[in-house]
Model the fold of this input.
Amino acid sequence: MKAAIPLVLPVLGAVAEYSITITDRSINNKPLIPARPTDDPYSATGCGGSPCTNVLNAGWIPYTTDPLSDEGGLFLRLSTEGCYPSVISLVDSVPGTNGLEFQTPSDSNILHDGPDPSFDFPNVTQAEIAYASDPRTTHRPLTGEYFVTYQQSPYGGGRKTIVSRSKTPSDHSSWTRNEHQMFPDVDDCATALWFPFDEGVDLEAGDEVPKAYAVATFGELRGGNLTLVSSSDNMETWDTERTFVFTRSNDFWDNATLSTGPSPVKLSDGNWLLLYNVDNLWPVSDPVQPFPYYGRCALGYVILDQNNITNVLARSEEPLVYAELPWELNGTTPVVVYTDGIRPIGNDEFIIYSGGGDTVIEGFSIKVNID
Done:
């Protein structure tokens, strides 16, 4: 469904410099991956012994070193009708479809990257990673590694981010979970890795591997503010740099809890685009009702300074995308668009992969205009 009139949203702080155009609000005019009924699930028992019917919150992972290649796959959350239990699945894209058609989720592509959940949650006895959710992905060309982060969040509370990595991402069995949680002493509900200072580094000439960074969202359930963290020991331990994207006041649309979207992507001018999610079912203990016009979960963005990556150059004055389509307005969780995935297609254009209604995977495309 092409927008008849492109939606261009101004941003705070640099109105004359940046705008974003939604170039295709609904690629294929339907979900890229739909839900399945309980009598014909993607997996009969894969979700903690229950049928896996819903697909949501997907992250694109390339299978080549070419960032514009459509050879890759989607890490997605495969869940029951009620969203939990859930597992992480990696589905390959169908060749020649521009990353818009994918193999069918099944038992064969559920991620098995490490030990049973008892490794992290001693009281969990369900199937492997039966409470995993919300994958976010990135590629580090400097080291030839591909990464996915996801949360383990079993019944009884707690969310811990896991890092899994591979050098041969299309080989599903090659993915290996880090031995340690990213933040063992604190809960976080969304974290995306980022390697902003790798460009120009020559490891063969003796240069050191730069720090790894991540945009973390500390908070057990629905998020909070966005915090930059860093690691100097191959992602074994992490230090807090600073919190840099905050929930804003009631004078702004994004006055509810935030969670990071996919890993930041570099623009043609060297600055960075970071997408973020806003969840209006907040505060958790006493949610504000009714929802605003853009529903429960919607998408915003900031532009980050290449010379000072916590310096916000611009921020959306309105939601970029919010629930409007039937599969976004309805579903397991109504009025939700939640974004974990992004794929560059050149000239500051991107395909965005989102979950609609906590039920389906959808795609739309945007262009960042830099004046």
Remarks:
- The chain has a mean pLDDT of 90.
- The helical segments are 326-329.
- The radius of gyration is 19 Å.
- The longest helix spans residues 326-329.
